[in-house]
Each structure stands twice: as structure tokens, then as C-alpha cells.
Design goal:
The chain is an alpha/beta fold and 442 residues long. The chain is 42% helix and 18% strand. Helix 1 packs parallel to helix 4 and helix 3 crosses helix 9.
């Protein structure tokens, strides 16, 4: 197969997937994905699974867990979502995204069974399989074919009805839970927590991040109902100390009775230090043993989480961040101010219309000097004129700049920041992905 033909095949498959019911909608029913997995001989059950749910930090925690497992000599599969730009980003083998050729090959293998499930579902008055359901099945099939020693799987939205939840994960990791996707998951923290808790399987271990009291109560009850063991922050593991360092930070972590002293973590922000502690605790929960200090140092020192306060340019310093809800924006705002030195901070903002936009902007106002409002390429993105109207509630009119073209917005922001300033492109995973692509081509 020629390179051009392979690229054409991948684009055709990607278009077919994206034409399905998009992943920001969920169909609260696991019957279709379970039926497909049954036809594929249960690929989701071929390896131990660490399943990661929560509102913020899921992708970074999953990536840190994967890096630790790989440093321990295990073959890993990693499934994250959503992709920043390309669907192959959603699944990795041994720390590398699968090739477009492998993506197409696996899709063609499952395609006949996919058609069976689609036909059955429509005959019963249901929908075709959603894009997320199909990609999830493809990921599990890819891991089974490899095969992997451990799969680290991030939920898409929620947990109980999430397509990834057909596994029998030995370990469920719940990152911090906040208000997001309230139209699907519920309008209170307790309701959202109940959905996320749906990944806790009978007899498994639930490793919990620090949570609000009402969330913790729901998670503890769900774990008790499932006869699951619970691993708690500040009891079973904790972040003891952290300090800033060039390119990241230095952390001291306790898990059980072992302390990892002053380990370099190549990610910025207190939230990432907490994520690292959570990840090491998850490894202990799965394997029943702790990684050696040199393994932890190797993994944490090299871990990369694309689009998570990622440096994508210099002079001025330019960052891409996927924060897309008030809780995530708060963590980003604190981390930017703490981790980087600059004269002025300019934010490039493109945000989905269904988010709590004013709460996000109010948080940013404390650290951002000027904003450039624009749009990303998602149909869900709020028009730049409407975002500008929101922004003028928090900045003066001369501090808000509307630039409808994303590339032009990045250039405008860098000019506003000047060589000693800082630009952060944020508001959505899609926005962070666009910024990374822009930087790569600039």
C-alpha cells in the first residue's frame, strides 16, 4: 500500500467515524458496545485494566500511570479521550500512538461485526453505534491483538454508561469531581459523582483523589455497595512536599509506608503533583507492590501530557492547555502564575457554548491581562462575538480583542504579549489541539 493510499484510507475511516453520533452526546445504554465486544470475543477482558474517571485530570493521571507501568517493564495500552486532533491519539501501545495503518487495519477487522450491531439496533428502534462506542471497541481490539500486559483506560464522559465501562477493571481511579456536563450527568455534585462511581466493579479497588465531602460520601457508598477496597488520599497515600524546578517540579510522595523523596516531575502545577501521587497509588493497588525509586524517577521525569499546560513556543512563551470547566481553569490559572515568569499574560480563548463561561472567565480575570477571543473548528464552539460579550464583563473593552480566525488570533496574542510576555491558548481540548497544530506549522 502506497503512503498516499494509506493516508486516503485513514481519512476515509476517520470521516466514517466522525459521521456517527458525536461523542458530546451519550446514549445511556451499554448494550450496543457490549454486543460488539461479544462478537469480537471480549477483547476488553484480555488484560488487567486500570479504569480512570473524574471531571479533571483524567488524561494526565492515565498518562502517568501508563508511564510508570511501562518503566516497570510491562507492555501497556493507553486509551484516552478526546483526541487533540487525530483519532490515532486516543490509543497508544507502549507509549506511542498507534499508526494510521494499524488504526485502519483494526477498523476493517471489526467493521463486519459493527454492521451487525448497527442493523440489530436499528431493527429494534435504536440508534447506530456512536462514534465513541466504535472507537472504544477498536481500542480494546487493538490492545487484545498486541497483546498488552495492562490497559489504562480513560472514560469519555461520566462512567456508569460510558462505553469504556464494559471492562472488568481491577482498579478504578476517580480523579477530582466538579461541575461539568450537567445536562447529561446531573445538576449536583452528588449526581455527577454517582455516574462516575459506576466504574467501580465488584471486588475491585477504588483509588480516590481528594474530593468535596458530598462527592466522597457518594463514592464511599458506591465502593461499599460493590464490596470494593478504597484507597484514600492523606491516609493511604499523599503528596508530602513539592517545589518548583526548571521544566516542572520536584515532588515528595508517600504511598503506604514508602516515601519517594524529591522526584522530578516534568509537568507543571499542584494539580499535576497530586495526579502523580494518585497514579503511584493506583500502581500499588493493581500490582500489590511499589515501583522502585529509580523507576518512579524515570517515569515521572519523562512523562508528557500533550495540551496540558504544554509549552508550544518561546519569545513570547506560548502554552496550550485543555482546561474547559471552572475547576480546570482554576488549576491552570494557579499553575501558570506559579510556574512561569512573564511580564504580561494574554489568553487566547475558544470555548464550547455549553460550558459555564462566566465562571471560567471570572477565574481567569485574576491572572490574565488581556484576552483574544476566537473560535475553534468545533460546531459546538461559542461564536467569537458572543464570547467577546461575556469577556467584557470581566475585562475592559480595550482588553478584549475579537479575532475570528484562530491562526490570526494566536499571532495577535503573541504581539500583545511581546517577547517577555506569555500566551496561553485554552478553553477546550479542541482549542489546545488547534494551538499545538498552529505552533507546529508556524
Amino acid at each position: 500500500m502506497t503512503t498516499d493510499h494509506a493516508a486516503s484510507e485513514f481519512e476515509a475511516v476517520q470521516r466514517a467515524l466522525l459521521a456517527r453520533w458525536p461523542e458530546h452526546k451519550i446514549a445511556p445504554d451499554l448494550s450496543r458496545i457490549q454486543r460488539l465486544c461479544d462478537l469480537l470475543a471480549e477483547p476488553q477482558l484480555t488484560s488487567p485494566v486500570i479504569h480512570v474517571a473524574g471531571t479533571n485530570g483524567k488524561t494526565s493521571v492515565a498518562r502517568i500511570i501508563e508511564a510508570l507501568l511501562r518503566a516497570m517493564g510491562l507492555r501497556t495500552g493507553l486509551m484516552t479521550s478526546p483526541a487533540l486532533r487525530d483519532l490515532t491519539e486516543r490509543m497508544e501501545l507502549d507509549g506511542e500512538p498507534i499508526s494510521s495503518e494499524r488504526f485502519v487495519e483494526t477498523y476493517r477487522q471489526i467493521e463486519p461485526y459493527l454492521e451487525i450491531v448497527d442493523t440489530e439496533s436499528v431493527a429494534e428502534g435504536g440508534p447506530l453505534m456512536t462514534m465513541f462506542e466504535v472507537v472504544t471497541a477498536l481500542g480494546y481490539a487493538c490492545f487484545a491483538d498486541a497483546p498488552v500486559d495492562v490497559a489504562v483506560v480513560e472514560t469519555g464522559m461520566g462512567g456508569r454508561w460510558d462505553a469504556t465501562n464494559v471492562n472488568e477493571a481491577e482498579v478504578a481511579v476517580i480523579t477530582p469531581i466538579g461541575m461539568d456536563h450537567t445536562d447529561y450527568l446531573g445538576d449536583t455534585l452528588g449526581k455527577i459523582a454517582a455516574e462516575k462511581a459506576g466504574i467501580i466493579k465488584t471486588g475491585s479497588t477504588a483509588v480516590l483523589a481528594q474530593q468535596p465531602p458530598e462527592v466522597l460520601a457518594v463514592l464511599m457508598q458506591a465502593a461499599d455497595d460493590a464490596s470494593a477496597t478504597v484507597v484514600l488520599p492523606e491516609v493511604d497515600y499523599e503528596l508530602l512536599a513539592r517545589g518548583l524546578s526548571v521544566g516542572g517540579q520536584v515532588v515528595t510522595i508517600r504511598v503506604a509506608d514508602h516515601v519517594y523523596e524529591e522526584v522530578f516531575l516534568s509537568l507543571h502545577g499542584r494539580h499535576q503533583a497530586d495526579n502523580a501521587a494518585l497514579a503511584v497509588a493506583a500502581i500499588f493497588a493493581l500490582l500489590g507492590r511499589l515501583p522502585e525509586p529509580e523507576i518512579v524517577a524515570e517515569a515521572l521525569g519523562a512523562v508528557h501530557s500533550p495540551g496540558r499546560l504544554e509549552v508550544i513556543g518561546r519569545h513570547p512563551l506560548t502554552l496550550a492547555d485543555a482546561a474547559h470547566n471552572p475547576h480546570g481553569v482554576q488549576a491552570t490559572a494557579v499553575a501558570v502564575a506559579e510556574s512561569f515568569t512573564y511580564d504580561r499574560l494574554v489568553a487566547v480563548l475558544a470555548i464550547m457554548g455549553d460550558k459555564d463561561i462566566d465562571a471560567m472567565l471570572q477565574t481567569l480575570r485574576a491572572v490574565v491581562d488581556e484576552v483574544v477571543v476566537t473560535v475553534n473548528d468545533s460546531p459546538r464552539c461559542l461564536p467569537s462575538s458572543e464570547l467577546a460579550a461575556h469577556a467584557t464583563r470581566f475585562w475592559t473593552a480595550d482588553q478584549v480583542h475579537e479575532v475570528s480566525d484562530f491562526a490570526d488570533a494566536m499571532v495577535a496574542a503573541r504581539n500583545l504579549a511581546g517577547p517577555t510576555g506569555c500566551v496561553v491558548a485554552m478553553g477546550s481540548v479542541v482549542t489546545a489541539g488547534l494551538a499545538r497544530t498552529w505552533a507546529a506549522n508556524a
